[in-house]
Automatic annotation (TrEMBL):
InterPro entries (UniProt xref): AmpC-like, Beta-lactam-related, Beta-lactam/transpept-like
The protein's name: Alkaline d-peptidase
Matches recorded under PANTHER family: D-ALANYL-D-ALANINE CARBOXYPEPTIDASE, D-ALANYL-D-ALANINE-CARBOXYPEPTIDASE/ENDOPEPTIDASE AMPH
Superkingdom of the source species: Bacteria
Matching Gene3D superfamilies: DD-peptidase/beta-lactamase superfamily (3.40.710.10)
Pfam families documented for this protein: Beta-lactamase
UniProt domain Beta-lactamase-related: residue ranges: 122-427
């Protein structure tokens, strides 16, 4: 489930392609890079902050310079598939209160652990767990301190606590990385935001009323293109994101071509520029344009332009890998639309199923440093950063809105924060910063069926803690909502808010049964190569 901005119902995440090394036998094997030596590993992701060798397998190029899809590696045994942006059980709110009446805190904070603000963040994280999510990890950063904390468990089988340095799937937060590279290309004069999609991908956006000659790059980035979101396709969701479909196809390779084909099989949701509607297909197309303009894979451009300069060594491009880098916790989902049903361990899934729309893996520390650098003007010239923060009129409701791969939200105390949210099967994340880059907060949950407590957690990160004599929650006085308060404070006043209304949730303990432990991922199997261009 690749969520973005305000998490409209039925929206999923995106993926990244990893770096592979060829063995002498010619078979591609992923490697992990540690220190100065490479150690072969089961489908492992390569950190974007680490350069790959000249022996790295390269994707062939189609006529016109567009890179073709890499030859699929995993096919599927106990197949598993990536999530989409928003469905799978994320819509439910509170799980039965039987789970974690007293949330267990993981590792101790790094610095300033007793500061009032950090205490509020910790209480808010505990409230998220008390509402039924297995565990939460997060980091808060300002000019003087870096604090990290966690609550709940990271593994239902072993009972291990959630770690403060966990890697996790960032889902649609990937879109901010993609948009940053596109804006850098505009600053270099290599493309214009007012270019049409057909300028770079002639004939790709066609079918059932879609017309790439009428859609601009800007409209892709701010979700005003009207292009259908492939993750809303019922058949696609049933196959790749829900229940038995996910369990069967979780290890399958999926090319960007499939996403474009699914989108083009539907009519556009509105004429280009007429409205705002979040669509993951927009960023599949934006990344294809990025690749066409540069002649390089978008992962390589993200590495060269963002990850390497900022030393984001925990930010990875999964490629066809199904695994998570360490340290990380297990991820859980009910694999249902409404959050009901038993929990499944969904940690292992083929990252290719969400590509540039939301497949990156990172940590709270890396994301905080990324948004700090972005909003302080370290990655974009002033004109491009201003364009990124220009909200589309169709999405701007005064308190929140969507720019170019960047969303604005307003906390209960009136602080404006900029960043992005991301939802994936088994994972929900949010990463925000003040406009001047002076303060950041990133957090992730390892369950996808509840947003309860998210708003309070963001408030805790950016609002001053209550002082003695301040209005208390429920007092009916202005400012009576206290940062860190439990789920009742997460109610939304906007219908598209990503803090969803509570729905039915599994009335079971979060203690796992041995049968739930996932089997190992299948060995990669040959699969037919697929063209990147849409018909």
């Amino acid at each position: 489930m690749v969520f973005g901005h305000r998490f409209p119902a039925g929206q999923p995440p995106r993926a990244f392609r990893g770096h592979f090394w060829r063995c002498r036998s010619g078979r591609r094997r992923a490697v992990t890079v540690t220190g100065h030596h490479r150690t072969p590993a089961a489908p492992a992701r390569q950190p974007l902050g680490v350069r790959s060798s000249s022996t790295m397998a390269r994707r062939p190029h189609l006529p016109g310079g567009t890179p073709a899809a890499p030859r699929p590696v995993p096919e599927a045994r106990p197949a598993r598939r990536t999530a989409r942006a928003g469905a799978v059980g994320l819509v439910a709110a509170a799980l039965a209160a039987t789970a974690f009446a007293a949330p267990a805190r993981a590792d101790a904070p790094t610095t300033a652990g007793t500061a009032p603000r950090h205490q509020e963040i910790q209480r808010a994280m505990d409230a998220v767990v008390a509402a039924g999510i297995p565990g939460v990890t997060g980091q808060a950063r300002d000019r003087h301190t870096v604090w990290k904390g966690a609550s709940g468990i990271g593994n239902r089988v072993t009972g291990a606590p959630r770690g403060t340095d966990d890697h996790f799937r960032i889902a649609s937060i990937t879109k901010t990385f993609v948009a940053t590279v596109v804006l850098q290309l505009e600053a270099e004069g290599k493309l214009s935001l007012d270019d049409t999609v057909d300028t770079h991908l002639p004939g790709v956006v066609r079918g059932n009323g879609h017309d790439g000659r009428k859609i601009t790059v800007r409209q892709l980035l701010n979700h005003t293109s009207g292009v259908y979101d492939y993750l809303e396709d019922p058949a696609y969701r049933a196959k790749f994101m829900l229940g038995e479909g996910f369990l069967k196809h979780r290890y399958d390779y999926r090319s960007p071509q499939v996403a474009v084909d699914v989108a083009m099989s539907h009519a556009p949701v509105f004429a280009p520029g007429a409205h705002y509607r979040y669509s993951n297909t927009n960023y599949v197309l934006a990344a294809l344009i990025l690749e066409k303009v540069t002649g390089n894979r978008y992962e390589d451009e993200v590495h060269r332009r963002i990850a390497a300069p900022l030393k984001l060594r925990s930010t990875t491009a999964p490629g066809d890998s199904v695994r998570m880098p360490r340290p990380s916790s297990r991820a859980y989902s009910t694999l249902t639309e409404d959050g009901s049903g038993r929990l499944h361990d969904v940690t292992l899934q083929n990252a290719s199923q969400s590509w540039a729309e939301g497949d990156m893996i990172s940590t709270a520390d890396d994301l905080n440093r990324f948004f700090r650098a972005l909003l302080r003007g370290k990655l974009l010239p002033p004109a491009q950063l201003a364009a990124m923060k220009t909200l589309s009129p169709q999405s701007d409701d005064g308190a929140s809105g969507y720019g170019l791969g960047l969303t604005k939200e307003t906390t209960s105390c009136g602080t404006e924060v900029w960043g992005h949210t991301g939802g994936w099967i088994g994972s929900l994340s949010a990463s925000f910063s003040t406009a001047d880059g002076s303060r950041q907060l990133t957090f992730n949950t390892n369950g996808d069926w509840s947003f309860a407590g998210f708003t309070a957690l963001i408030d805790a990160g950016f609002c001053d803690p209550p002082k003695p004599g301040d209005p208390q929650p429920g007092s009916g006085e202005p400012g009576g909502r206290q940062p860190g308060a439990p789920a009742a404070t997460t109610a939304t006043t906007t219908p598209e808010s990503w803090a969803r209304t509570p729905a039915a949730a599994p009335a079971e303990s979060l203690a796992a049964t041995p049968a739930e432990t996932p089997t190992a991922a299948p060995a990669p199997a040959a699969a037919p190569a697929e063209k990147r261009n849409a018909a």
